[in-house]
Design brief:
Radius of gyration: 24 Å
Order of helices and strands: HHHEEHEHEHEEEHEHEHEHEHEEH
Mean pLDDT: 89
Distance between the termini: 48 Å
Structural class: alpha/beta
Strand content: 15-25%
Helix content: 40-55%
Length: 292
């Protein structure tokens, strides 16, 4: 089997359509059919059930799917490593949640890129997808709120930091503290998910419907809504730091019986890979530069 056959199999498994697979891979449909047929003959297994209106994986196809993903990921990784050989020290692919890139992780990535001798790629995805990507080898390490339970993974606490109530300086310059009732009455409270503990606290504090008002997944958008439209938001200290330092934002004491829980971010990776040069080098860099 070759890489073209495997990539064709993976694309067809995702689209469940020979026509769409043909369009994505930019080859005629007969080529797609031939590649799948050749692959099935080589494996001596039927990988897809085909009907007039459906294409779906067989049990053997589902079993082969995870292996094919890992093989293709490693092939692509090998090709990338060969392209950069002699140009940089190593290549690292780092996964993370959309909500946390603007936190303290940004400063770590900034330092990593500033070295100029490391090839860096970041991948944004949901936690479960990031864990799957770690298993298949398409990313080397991931920053998540909740680490995987499996003993196959190493789980290191990367950062624990306070979540602060943040408002714009122009509107809250004279305000030292706000109660839960005052924040709620404000009517401009935005929600961004900082982990399961925070999500439960927020809904308990303000009601489940409050999270449906203005909900964002990108910290840059949250910061702009707070500074330009007078929204209030609970943000990790590292996310709000620059805005507070420049006088654009203000940290306001939140007066309530229950304070927001700290945000915890874990760095996770496969234990079986921690001796690989790229991952070992990155982990050493993290140990030296994690605190800020």
């Amino acid at each position: 089997m070759d890489q073209e056959q495997l990539e064709t199999f993976l694309t067809l498994a995702e689209t469940s359509s020979f026509t769409k697979t043909s369009e994505i891979l930019n080859v005629v449909q007969s080529t797609i059919t031939a590649r799948i047929k050749t692959l099935e003959n080589q494996l001596n297994r039927k990988l897809f059930d085909r009907g007039t209106r459906y294409v779906r994986l067989t049990p053997d196809g589902r079993l082969f799917l995870s292996h094919a993903g890992k093989i293709v990921s490693r092939m692509r990784q090998a090709e990338a490593d060969l392209r950069i050989r002699g140009k940089v020290d190593y290549r690292i692919v780092i996964g993370g949640l959309n909500t946390i890139w603007d936190s303290s992780i940004y400063y770590l990535i900034e330092k990593l890129c500033a070295k100029g001798t490391i090839s860096v790629r970041t991948v944004t995805d949901h936690s479960s997808h990031l864990i799957n990507r770690l298993q298949e080898g398409s990313i080397d390490a991931a920053f998540v709120f909740i680490p995987p339970r499996s003993s196959l993974f190493e789980k290191n606490l990367f950062r624990r930091e306070r979540i602060l109530l943040i408002g714009s300086s122009k509107s809250y310059q004279a305000v030292q503290s706000l109660s839960r009732e005052e924040v709620f009455r404000n009517g401009r409270l935005l929600y961004q998910n900082w982990g399961i503990a925070y999500d439960e606290w927020f809904k308990s504090e303000f009601g489940a419907d409050a999270a449906a008002g203005v909900r964002v997944d990108y910290s840059g958008l949250a910061l702009r809504l707070i500074s330009n439209l007078d929204y209030l938001g609970f943000l990790p200290e590292s996310v709000a730091r620059e805005g507070v330092k420049k006088g654009i934002l203000k940290s306001i004491e939140y007066s309530s019986k229950t304070a927001p829980p700290d945000m915890t971010v874990y760095l996770t990776y496969l234990k079986s890979r921690e001796r690989e040069y790229r991952l070992a080098s990155f982990l050493a860099f993290v140990r030296e530069n994690a605190r800020r």
